[in-house]
Design brief:
By secondary structure, the protein is an alpha/beta fold.
Length: 786
């Protein structure tokens, strides 16, 4: 048998394409080209008829083909100073194979008998564990923490592929395994078994949805598969007695190791920009296809085994494959069930304060309003004064602490039958039963006095106040929606007048003209470019790099200064101006993307799209036109949507999002987990990313239940091939915990608040400079490490 082998990129254009043909050909590039020429010459020589020529090819070109890839591998390893273990292990594998070939060639040239097994076989056998170790190291360096479900996908894929190959190798394995143990039997079965491991490893890696290995990863995968396929064919031919030295089959070993050597050459380069690969529908589908195909393969092997004789190993592998598939299915069901239970429990509870939420208020009000002998009800709407200043000066973490303490203090000053809820933001509501106008006003005074006492926030005594609007039933409305609207008008009146609390009356509708005036100012702002966009970076928790930002709109009011969205977005929605504002924000964001790209800076920009804008059937064409007008790739834009839109009209959501996703625009679900909805849209709709709401990240450090919910959400997202981004990261504790749990990206005040583009450019430059100082190369060791 002949084992002359080469390692060459000749059959793989991606390796050659990366050589800069328009510049001076370096020695390294020349060696890669030499490998390619040797593979071509070797394969051509083996394909031509003539025993004499076959001898020349096997003993001349074969020797050269072994030496050149070995040199290429070790030059690549030396270039990085033995710091890349995957390259070092692969180089050792090529060297081991070269040593076996050299020894075997010497035995043949001497004309003496060639024993089996021989020392040459040791070199051939060592190739497999070394290559597998190299593959494992490479995968571990580029794959972040994954959930159990993903590893089960990998195991099922590996076992299914191994079961099929075990059937193919039955003619080889059956005689060797059924005979008495001997060195010859071990040697005869060792290499086919290693082939099983190689194919299993490649299949398992294909099931990883987050393997960001770069384009050169294909060289190693294809090289391993070509090498294993050639070895399997060789083993079958030897068993059947049809193998002949110098046949074209021998070139398969050469091509496989050539691709592996080219991969080693590429991994030692300094350009690592290609190691990032976004995870979306394609990688998610790949994992599912691999797992499903492996399950079908395992079932097929068992069916075949019932009709014809196959190896016991094949039957065992197929059985374990089906067991793994069953475990994977059960785990997926349990994850979905657990997530559904947790979300049902949290559906009527505000995650931050632990108080009932708006949904609970509607349920409670409905129950009380439909009672046969309904009593008088009063709805108090409370809004903290100057709460935005707390967030701006002390950060959202302090604002959240204040909201928690406000909720607790309000609870202390209410009766057992009163219903306290947090509506959202800094708004609370209290539903009082069997009270009139005066009693409701007295409760408002009592609550304002309770909140006037200072709050202790991280050693700071913070004084706060609250404005209270009061609406009464049945005088001001028969349902909660009417009461909320009128209590909101009364609250706005209390805030603007400075009285602290106000009971709604019909005359208050005239004061609602202030809102109308603000709407007019908003129309002017849209026409006169008063809207600006600030950008908040999203940090990759694995690398610390910034590849994307979120665009957040601000209103540069001519008299009131810079206004944040909570000051005007509700009015924009009410006035029907949201589509016009969406167009303005998209224009500003896309112009900034084009400006960054002109500076050589590639950043993905996420823009929030409201439900009212997404119902526009022309939105996909509008977005595509805006991108094309600036010459931008669609992947540079990401649209953030809410669960509200996804659940309101599933068919319409699927149609619009599918058109957007097919154009290349990325889709992200914003404030994930705050709504109460079915998780099936994660399966049905084209989504790339989930953004975990800040109300989940804040209590993680002190609440084991909250941490479990976050961990489960991250695990579910990864098992579906989705990125997980955590919002509102305000502390290093949250940042560290999210990194440990395998969250993909994070944004929040701990890293950077939203800032104008120019300020963001300075922030990014300073961050890169700091990173470069941290990552200065260490002195090259004088000898190989380890």
């Amino acid at each position: 048998m002949t084992w002359w082998t080469v390692a060459s990129p000749c059959g793989c254009s991606p390796g050659v394409d990366q050589v800069r043909l328009g510049t001076r050909v370096t020695l390294r590039a020349g060696l890669v080209w030499a490998m390619g020429l040797l593979v071509v010459a070797y394969a051509a020589g083996l394909a031509l008829p003539g025993d004499g020529l076959g001898q020349v090819v096997n003993y001349s070109l074969g020797a050269l083909a072994v030496c050149v890839p070995t040199v290429v591998c070790w030059r690549a390893v030396l270039r990085v100073g033995f710091r890349r273990w995957e390259a070092l292990l692969a180089a050792a594998a090529v060297t081991s194979y070269a040593a076996g070939c050299t020894y075997y060639g010497v035995l043949l040239a001497s004309g003496g008998p060639v024993p089996f097994p021989s020392p040459a076989d040791v070199g051939f056998f060592l190739v497999y564990p070394l290559l597998l170790a190299s593959m494992v190291v490479a995968v571990r360096q580029h794959v972040r923490a994954l959930g159990l479900s993903v590893w089960l996908d990998c195991a099922v894929g590996s076992l299914g592929a191994a079961a099929v190959l075990a059937v193919v190798l039955s003619p080889v394995l059956n005689p060797a395994l059924s005979g008495s143990p001997s060195m010859a039997a071990v040697a005869a079965t060792a290499r086919p078994m290693f082939d099983l491991l190689v194919v299993a490893a490649v299949a398992g890696t294909a099931a990883l949805p987050d393997a960001r290995m770069g384009s050169r990863w294909a060289l190693l995968v294809v090289g391993l598969m070509v090498f294993a396929a050639t070895d399997v064919t060789y083993a079958l031919q030897v068993t059947a007695g049809s193998y002949v030295v110098g046949m074209p089959l021998d070139a398969g070993f050469a091509l496989g190791l050539a691709l592996i050597a080219t991969w080693v050459h590429g991994t030692s380069g300094t350009d690592r920009s290609a190691t990032r690969r976004e995870v979306g529908a394609t990688t998610r589908a790949t994992a599912l296809v691999v797992s499903a195909a492996a399950t079908a393969a395992g079932l097929g092997v068992l069916v075949v085994g019932a009709r014809v004789h196959v190896s016991t190993l094949a039957v065992v592998l197929a059985g374990v494959t089906l067991l793994g598939a069953a475990a994977r299915t059960q785990l997926a069901y349990r994850q979905l069930a657990r997530m559904a239970d947790l979300r049902r429990q949290a559906a009527t509870t505000d995650e931050l304060t632990g108080l009932p939420n708006r949904r609970a208020l509607y349920a409670e009000a409905q129950a009380r309003l439909v009672e046969p002998q309904r009593r008088r009800l009063a709805l108090l709407m409370l809004d903290l004064d100057k709460f935005k200043e707390v967030n701006d000066s002390l950060g959202h973490h302090a604002g959240d602490l204040l909201l928690i303490q406000v909720g607790a203090r309000l609870s202390e000053h209410l009766r057992a039958g009163d219903a306290l809820t947090r509506l959202g933001g800094d708004e609370f509501a209290v539903l009082l039963e069997d009270v009139g106008r005066d009693e409701a006003a007295a409760v408002a005074v009592k609550l304002r006095a309770a909140l006037a006492e200072p709050f202790a926030l991280e050693g700071i005594a913070l004084h706060s106040s609250v404005s209270v609007g009061i609406a009464l039933s049945p005088d001001d409305g028969p349902d909660l929606s009417s009461l909320l609207r009128k209590a909101d008008i009364a609250m706005y009146r209390a805030k603007t007048s400075g009285d602290g609390h106000h009971v709604y009356s019909s005359a208050d509708d005239a004061h609602d003209g202030t809102r109308l005036r603000t709407v007019g100012e908003l129309r002017t702002a849209l026409a006169e470019d008063q809207l600006v966009v600030h950008y908040q970076p999203k940090i990759d928790l694995l690398t610390g790099e910034v590849h994307g930002v979120e665009a957040l709109v601000r209103w540069d009011h001519p008299t009131r200064g810079l206004l944040y969205p909570d000051a005007f977005l509700d009015l924009v929605e009410e006035a029907g101006l949201m589509r016009a504002m969406t167009t303005v924000v998209l224009d500003l964001a896309l112009d900034q993307i084009a400006a960054w790209q002109a500076q050589g800076q590639q950043l993905t920009v996420a823009v929030n799209i409201s439900a009212s804008s997404l119902v526009d059937a022309d939105l996909p064409e509008q977005v595509a036109g805006m991108l094309a007008a600036r010459g931008l790739e669609p992947r540079a834009l990401q649209l953030e949507i809410t669960e509200e839109f996804l659940m309101a009209d599933r068919d319409r959501a699927r149609a619009i999002l599918t058109r957007l996703r097919h154009s290349g625009v990325q889709i992200s679900v914003d404030d994930f987990g705050t709504g109460y909805s079915s998780l099936s849209y994660l399966r049905d709709l084209p989504i790339d990313e989930l953004k975990l709401d800040r109300s989940f990240t804040f209590p993680m450090a002190d609440d084991a239940r909250a941490a479990a919910l976050v961990a489960s959400t991250i695990d579910l997202a990864h098992s579906l091939g989705l990125r997980m981004v955590a919002e509102g990261v305000e502390t290093d504790v949250a940042y560290t915990e999210l990194t440990r749990l395998g969250c993909d990206q994070a944004q929040g005040y701990f890293m950077s608040r939203p800032v104008p583009a120019a300020e963001l450019d300075h922030w990014l430059s300073a961050r890169r400079a700091t990173t470069k100082l941290i990552e200065l190369p260490q002195p090259r060791p004088a000898a190989p490490l380890g």
